[in-house]
């Protein structure tokens, strides 16, 4: 696409009347620039992309988008916010791919990954080609790619959508993080269905206050409907049991569909029964009523299922087909995943790394634990420090045997993170075992029939981030090794 054509998607103030080179790609990393690239300078949290503009031109950049004038031998277009400009340009460069897809976005503190995988299963069972973008990976039809962010930067995102349209994907499901909303990564995405799971404390290192965190989430619903295409209704699927929903209803022009358990809702679950093997409930959806038997465990799983059912119905799917798909699902990797190696007590690996998710998972465990509850829990380094004492307190209140350990200390001192956790539990009973492997071995060596071990925080992750190192570490592997070493292999 020619530079001037591309710039026409920005405000006319940014039109450029000089050279008009053919743009071959949009890049925000000088190391990826090739002949004809449009290089976008982003002021990051670590470095300033403007410092790499000269090198980008040497690597072949034909033009540069920047937030200030730069002395370069190629056209430099100055904009107020280069991240947002990049999102608009990427959407245009790739031919507005999200207008050709049914796009379902899921935002919220917890439950995004689980809900997106439930929806993927529902659409796959309808023999649709699907795309998925989220924490675990990006999937385009049958191809799976590793991802660095839950919601990638706008160029990576629009490129993935473009590839989806090329691969005849009809429905794309994506997790939308609050960081992505705040930083404009999803600008230009035309969502058909926007799902909200819940809002509880997390990411205060980034958003600073819960109010600003809520405002970031609110952007998702206020922007929905702006890109309205004729005959293409937009839906906001909202959690009736979460306080933030009231604000999101006010913010959106889309059709609102609510789901919930405790409060009145369009899609509602009642008579929940939860045990170690699954969860059952009665679903009401308008005038329809169905009995549902899930393999998934816990009240929080019912919320994820309700939001997936609501989104599926908004997409026009049949209620019974939707339920059939949901009932078959055994679980999502690292989310309440059972490690079974011939031991007499359940060992559960769960990605709970926020106060709310830890509380939910421990309350679910308490529903079927007959004796002790061991919980192995840590808090990440270089992330929201205010979570640390709170998560420690939750662990001590809801488990009989809390063990505090390391969970991705990154550049921080692991012992200091543990001290921050301990500040929340003065006078309570707990153990500190900094080495995560030893913490798991300890719990497995002590547990007996009737007890439950919950290993929280890593879920599907297969690494421990220490300093700049990425060390292989998988809670499921470690638990299995510890069990086999105690009970032998059968
Ligand atoms: C705080 C934040 O969001 N950081 C994101 C940001 O990194 P940054 O600001 O440090 O970037 P930077 O290194 O300063 O670089 C600035 C610019 O210079 C460019 N550059 C840099 C170096 C170089 O040699 N050449 C060059 O051109 C970079 O490409 C970039 O355009 O831009 C990067 C590229 O897009 C992201 O990968 C990175 O996410 C990091 C990994 C991250 O941890 N982000 C978290 C906070 C995040 O976004 N999390 C949410 C999920 C949260 C959840 O729900 O759990 C997510 O969506 O992932
Ligand atoms: N609806 C929910 N409400 C509260 N907690 C939940 C819910 N769904 C899942 N959880 C808990 O949160 C953990 C993370 O779930 P999931 O990966 O689906 O959330 P997420 O929003 O994608 O998280 P992240 O953004 O950190 O990747 C689960 O392992 C479980 O402990």
UniProtKB/TrEMBL annotation:
Pathway: Cell wall biogenesis; peptidoglycan biosynthesis
Class of enzymatic activity (EC top level): ligase
Obligatory cofactor(s): Mg(2+)
Residue span(s) of domain Mur ligase C-terminal: 334-459
GO CC entries: cytoplasm
Modified how: Carboxylation is probably crucial for Mg(2+) binding and, consequently, for the gamma-phosphate positioning of ATP.
Record-level GO BP terms: cell division; cell wall organization; peptidoglycan biosynthetic process; regulation of cell shape
Domain annotation Mur ligase central: ranges: 106-311
Domain Mur ligase N-terminal catalytic: from-to ranges: 22-94
Chain positions recorded as UDP-N-acetyl-alpha-D-muramoyl-L-alanyl-D-glutamate binding sites: 149-151, 177, 185
Modified residues (N6-carboxylysine): 217
Binding site for meso-2,6-diaminopimelate: 383, 407-410, 457, 461
Positions annotated to bind ATP: 108-114
UniProt keyword annotation of Magnesium present: yes
Record-level Gene Ontology MF annotations: ATP binding; magnesium ion binding; UDP-N-acetylmuramoylalanyl-D-glutamate-2,6-diaminopimelate ligase activity
Enzyme Commission designation: 6.3.2.13
Catalysed reaction, written as an equation: UDP-N-acetyl-alpha-D-muramoyl-L-alanyl-D-glutamate + meso-2,6-diaminopimelate + ATP = UDP-N-acetyl-alpha-D-muramoyl-L-alanyl-gamma-D-glutamyl-meso-2,6-diaminopimelate + ADP + phosphate + H(+)
Motif residue range(s): Meso-diaminopimelate recognition motif: 407-410
Protein's UniProt keywords contain ATP-binding: yes
UniProt keyword terms in alphabetical order: ATP-binding, Cell cycle, Cell division, Cell shape, Cell wall biogenesis/degradation, Cytoplasm, Ligase, Magnesium, Nucleotide-binding, Peptidoglycan synthesis
Family indicated by similarity: Belongs to the MurCDEF family. MurE subfamily.
NCBIfam families with a match to the protein in the record: murE (TIGR01085), PRK00139.1-2 (NF001124), PRK00139.1-4 (NF001126)
Known function: Catalyzes the addition of meso-diaminopimelic acid to the nucleotide precursor UDP-N-acetylmuramoyl-L-alanyl-D-glutamate (UMAG) in the biosynthesis of bacterial cell-wall peptidoglycan.
Record-given protein name: UDP-N-acetylmuramoyl-L-alanyl-D-glutamate--2,6-diaminopimelate ligase
